Each structure stands twice: as structure tokens, then as C-alpha cells.
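TetR family transcriptional regulator
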Amino acid sequence: MESLMTAKSEDTPPEHRTGTQPGIASPWNRPQKRRPQPALSREQIVAEAFALLDAEGIDALSMRKLGARLNAGATSLYTHVANKEELLALVVDHVFGELPLARAEGAEDPAVWRAVIVECTEGMRAAVVRHPWMVTVMGDVGMVYLGPNWMRLSEALLALMEAAGFGLAEANDVMGVVVGYTIGTASVEAAWLSALSRSGRGEQEFLDQLLPAVVEATRTHPRLHRLYTTQVPDEIEAGRDSGFLRGLNVILDGIEARRWPGR
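C-alpha cells:
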């Protein structure tokens, strides 16, 4: 994957290609070009891209189409963003700005620590499911970890882990495991829901039609067969919620046993 700041997209004007600049820039520390009384701001561009992605998905986003929605030429957008990849990094960080920050108070109590993590991860999971285009984007933008909203989230999570008694390096490891599980699980869920949306069918209807094929395909795999034929939840959405929490609790049980052995 090309670096965010060195990608040589054909739609990137030469003056915005940052590969010739010293050091490594990010969308947040690269100076914006200034024009007298600019008609647009970076915030407007990001907000409109966000709305377009939510309404029509990742395939609909182009600088030309975005410019048309803003009543501006595509070239005017490059005053504020270097290229489409940089724009996506900004929009992803915009989503992270929706999430509540972890609270470190009382985290020396494992019950409080766990409750805060559950609250934060459920919010993160909901954001990915609410904005399914993130499934595609997350793997393609290289500077998300430098975004101000992501750094605020990370700083708060690290403070939570330190308040619980983890050293900084181990706190970072714990955060990585928890966030990785959350984003990964939410991405699979969002992809599934997107497929449902494209099919035009409800989730229960889709599963009812899919289940006979699944049962037949797993007949030679007895454990999978038993899993799919005995654990189909009556309430599909509730089943997804409980499945996420079961997996998260497995992870938190292991982390808790390391931090509070014998509890």
C-alpha cells in the first residue's frame, strides 16, 4: 500500500505531492494554501464527503462529484486536501470524533475498568456499522493514527489502562488487542449488513433462505453443522450484539487475569 503522502494519483496537482518535501507530512500538519476570501473550508469539504459516503457509499466518492455537490470545481478542493486518499483520512478521523472518550476515574477497580472498555468498544463498533464505507477505507488510508480525534481516543484509552495499573507499553498492547477485535468484528458485521442492503431483503428473510444451503454444506463438518443448526438466534440483531460481547469478554477475562491474578 502506497503511503498516504507519497501516492502519485493522477488527480493530485504537482504542488500538492508531498513526496518531495522533507520529513513525513499528514493531512493535519500540511499547511493549506491560502486564497483571498476562500469559498470553501476544509471542514465543509470533509462534512460533504462524509454525507456523500453515508448516502451513496465509497464507489460514489470522486473529487469531481464532491466539487459538484459543493458548487465548486474539483481543482478548488485541492486548496484544502492534497488528494482523495488524504480526504478519506480526514473523513475517517471525523467519524472517530463521534465517539465518547474513555474515563480513567476508578479504573483501579476491575469492574469499572471493564465497564468503560465495554462502553467504548460498543461505541466504536456502532460507528463502523453506522458508516459501512469505513470497512473499505480503513485499510487504505495510512495516516489515520495521526488524526486529532484518533489521538484523543488513544490518549484516553492509554490513560484508562495506566489508571488500571498497566505500564505504558503494556497499556498500548492491551489497547491494540481490544481495538483490533472491535474494528475487525464490526467490519465483518458492516459488510454483512451491506450485503443485506444490496439484496433488498430483511435479515431474517435472508437467513431463512440461506440456512438450508449452510446446513447442507456443513454436513461433512460436524462441529460447524452443529453450530449452525443449534445456535441460530431468534432475534438476529440481539444475537449479533451478544456475540460481540461474548468475544470481548473472552479477551477481557484474559487481560484481567494478567492484571489482577487470583481475583
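The chain has two domains: 14-96, 110-259.
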